[in-house]
Amino acid sequence: MKNAPFSLRTKLTLSFLVVIIIGGLFSLIIGSRLVRETLISQAQDKVRHDLSSAWMVFDEKLNDIKNIVRLTASREGVRDALLTGQDDILFKYLGRVRSENGLDVLTLLDANGRVLLRTRSPKTAGDDQSDDELVRRAFDHQTIAAAEIVSRDELVKESEDLAAQALIDFIRTPRAAPRTGNQETSGLMLKAASPIQTEEGRIIGVLSGGILLNRNYEIVDRIKEIVFKGEQYKTRETGTATIFQNDLRISTNVKNEKGARAIGTLVSEEVKKAVLDEGNPWIDRAFVVNDWYITAYEPIKDAENRIVGILYVGMLERPYLDTANRVMRTFILIAGFFVIVLLVILDFSTARIILPLQRMAAATKQIAKGDLSHRVDVTSRDEIGALADSFNRMTAHLQEANDKLIEYGKILEKKVEERTRELRDIQFHLIQSEKLASIGKLAAGIAHEINNPLGGILIYSHLILEDTPKSGQNYENLKKIVKETTRCKDIVKGLLDFARPREPEMSPCDVHELLEKCLALTERHALFQNIHVEKSYNPSLPRIIADGGQLQQVFMNIILNAAEAMNGNGALTLRTSFDPDGDAVAVEIADTGHGIKEEHQKRLFEPFFTTKEVGKGTGLGLAISYGIVQKHRGTIEVRSEAGRGATFTVKLPLKQK
Q: Which of 449, 498, 528, 566 is the most exposed place for a label (fewest CB within 10 A)?
């Protein structure tokens, strides 16, 4: 025996190693996913909290503007100056308020909503701002503040500087949504409006003021200072904040590749769809200008609840991914160490397992040489010890098994003899088939030659019989000639049916219906008046594919033969069942007649063989039936003992090709 390329010990070691490696890989994959998801989830929770802090800074600035405008509008000096038309006093005072509080605009409107005074551009006045939502609510005795989109025309009225500050060119960035145009001319402003009222509560004007957020970094830098506290990762600031006007960055501390603030860049397409189009917050990873961040976005809405921008905070994703990678590298080192330890333990364990098996292998070589007395000495009480014990008992039984083999050889010889007899029977059936084929050819030739003369004899005999008086001495002789000629005609017809059977026309058939039709045809026959019919049908028998007319001819032939064998007195049994192999239907027709002698049974299906009296049968019925069943790829068998009746069994396949 050739040595195996790998020993059993090597195979065991490699098998366990493969299991360890596969398990380790799955653990690494699952562990890596869990670590990443855990860290990213924690980062998302943090950025969600950071967004709340950013809103506090944003709202605080908005409330500051609101309070400044409200307190200024409520001052008695402003009210008196407005009532007395002292515009110069109003201009100086309001200009000082705007300058000291860092407002970009502070505008005074009259009771009709027309501009009385712009502190930044006193010469531009008289335009109507009553359609402004904040102004409209101020006339309803409300002090209100909100973000608002201000058009370029309105900014120009205030100052060319403000219009220039708001003007931002679009900068295309990866993953940004497509945008028409090349620049944004309007601006996003935090704006407040408050009514100026007399002591009686009559509104005599409205004061509005605000700051332009475009290129104003006070809020975003304040957010970064409070929330992220200047944290850096590899010289890069980890936390960023941005205010968007629609999808355009107008105030941000996100840096571009040159290290400058990324003003003019656009939000990513997926964020724009979620926040601006659908009005939902976004808390997930997103591509920001040139890198991936863990981000939080929420829409900024104006006084009419329309989305006019986005407030954003985000942290670099890279620190969290690097942390996850460090954890996984540590895990891989630990796993590798334990794999080495396990391999050492495995090598020691396999050595103890393989040694008894090697002893058993040596023992098998001795037994192969014929030494059946050899035994294996293994003292362990585990499965290998049980195997060794079984091996020793196997050796002890080998001799006994050898004796049994000799006995089995004798039994096999008997089975060969039985099989030989079966082959002889098969050979007999083959010879029978060939014999029938030869007889068929001969019968066809004879029938063809004598059919026409017989027809002529029958016709002329009938003509002569019709012209012969019944009292004449030749009438009875002519009648016998006609009868015997008709019988010859029937024999010739039977020969032709036997020699040239038509091909069956296959269709679904129910054997029970065919049997019932046969019984219906015979119930008025004189032979069947004293015959008791017993039926034993299998109700689960399926329909078969066959020629119903031909099968009915077979069943009818067997039933009529049974009735004649019982001389019209006895019991006829019809039984249907499945063949033991399950692939065929079996139809049994049994009678209680005189039976069939054993020497006649082998010739039953030969043409012209009959045990009936001369003139009672042609000997073609069973031969034709045998041919029909063969055409259906079935078999027809007979069991009988003289004096104890006969049983014919027709087996037909369930399926036909």
A: 449
